[in-house]
């Protein structure tokens, strides 16, 4: 049985955390599509042409160390605005989404462009301040020096770029269930997501 859960939302909203928990709960496979763009960004910063890098991307690239930095995130949102980069990554994502046994994909355009027919769509969001606080805490816990105001500015700049691009902008699908996690613990956010997906599985 193929069953696709599409989870979209802005940076550090909790998409990855919710996606991993939902995948474990339902026994579905999970793909963090941000890693595709981060892997292309990594190669682009090393001097490769981003379109060629996207066309040559292989699964192993997604396991590269060092994809979780602010510099890579920033470059990822730049290469992600190139239409040929995005189109090179479509087939891989769609094949993953339709694998048997169910799949959760999280990103920016899963419910709108990659999987418009997904059985369940969630839009996970939170205020920019809450998201920046979470990302800042994450960096500090990993021993990376970070200034909160700079993290907030980076998150806002990336959201603005992601929302305003011409191709596949960050956007909630009309039929997505919106989950604002600003006031939620991780457990509450996961419970809200599981309930929304249960409703679609039942329906
Ligand atoms: O994938 P995305 O960038 O949307 O976010 P994430 O990596 O899942 O979450 C960013 C950080 O926020 C992580 O450190 C989570 O543990 C934390 N988080 C949280 O504190 N409360 C939530 N309700 C969800 C995530
Ligand atoms: O973890 P965080 O939410 O901060 O970022 P991410 O999900 O790893 O995505 C990094 C960047 O890749 C985003 O800012 C987007 O520009 C781009 N991206 C995209 O355009 N489409 C996706 N489906 C996923 C990510």
Q: Please, could you describe this protein's structure?
A:
Keywords: ATP-binding, Cytoplasm, Kinase, Nucleotide-binding, Transferase. GO terms for molecular function: ATP binding; CMP kinase activity; dCMP kinase activity. It is found in: Cytoplasm. By secondary structure, this protein is an alpha/beta fold. It has a domain at 4-33 and 89-192: P-loop containing nucleotide triphosphate hydrolases (Rossmann fold, 3-Layer(aba) Sandwich), CATH 3.40.50. Helix content is 53%, strand content 12%. It has 10 helices and 5 strands. Strands 2-3-1-4-5 form a 5-stranded parallel beta sheet, sandwiched between helices. Helix 2 (34-45) packs across helix 4 (70-79). It is globular. The two termini are 15 Å apart. The relative contact order is 0.22. The structure holds cytidine-5'-diphosphate (2 copies). One cytidine-5'-diphosphate (CDP) binds next to helix 2, helix 4 and helix 9.
User: Numbering strands along the chain, what is their spatial order in the largest sheet?
Assistant: 2-3-1-4-5
CATH fold title of the domain at 4-33 and 89-192: Rossmann fold
Supply the helix-strand structural class.
alpha/beta
Backbone shape: globular
CATH architecture group name of the domain at 4-33 and 89-192: 3-Layer(aba) Sandwich
CATH class of the domain at 4-33 and 89-192: Alpha Beta
Mean pLDDT: 96
- Oligomeric state, counting identical vs distinct chains: single chain
Any idea what the CATH superfamily of the domain at 4-33 and 89-192 is called?
Answer: P-loop containing nucleotide triphosphate hydrolases
Residues in β-strands, percent:
5-15%
């Amino acid at each position: 049985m193929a069953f696709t859960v599409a989870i979209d939302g802005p940076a550090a909203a909790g998409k990855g955390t919710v996606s991993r928990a939902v995948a474990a709960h339902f026994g579905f496979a999970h793909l963090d599509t941000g890693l595709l763009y981060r892997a292309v960004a990594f190669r682009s910063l090393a001097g490769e042409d981003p379109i060629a890098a996207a066309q040559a991307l292989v699964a192993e690239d997604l396991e590269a160390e060092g994809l979780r930095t602010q510099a890579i995130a920033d470059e990822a949102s730049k290469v992600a605005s190139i239409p040929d980069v995005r189109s090179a990554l479509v087939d891989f994502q769609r094949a993953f989404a339709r694998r048997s046994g169910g799949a959760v994909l999280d990103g920016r355009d899963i419910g709108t462009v990659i999987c418009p027919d997904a059985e369940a769509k969630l839009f996970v969001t939170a205020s920019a301040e809450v998201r920046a606080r979470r990302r800042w805490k994450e960096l500090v816990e990993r021993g990376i020096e970070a200034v909160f105001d700079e993290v907030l500015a980076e998150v806002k700049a990336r959201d603005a770029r992601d929302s305003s691009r011409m191709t596949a902008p960050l956007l909630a699908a009309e039929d997505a269930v919106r989950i604002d996690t600003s006031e939620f613990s991780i457990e509450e956010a996961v419970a809200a997501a599981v309930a929304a997906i249960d409703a679609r599985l039942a329906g």
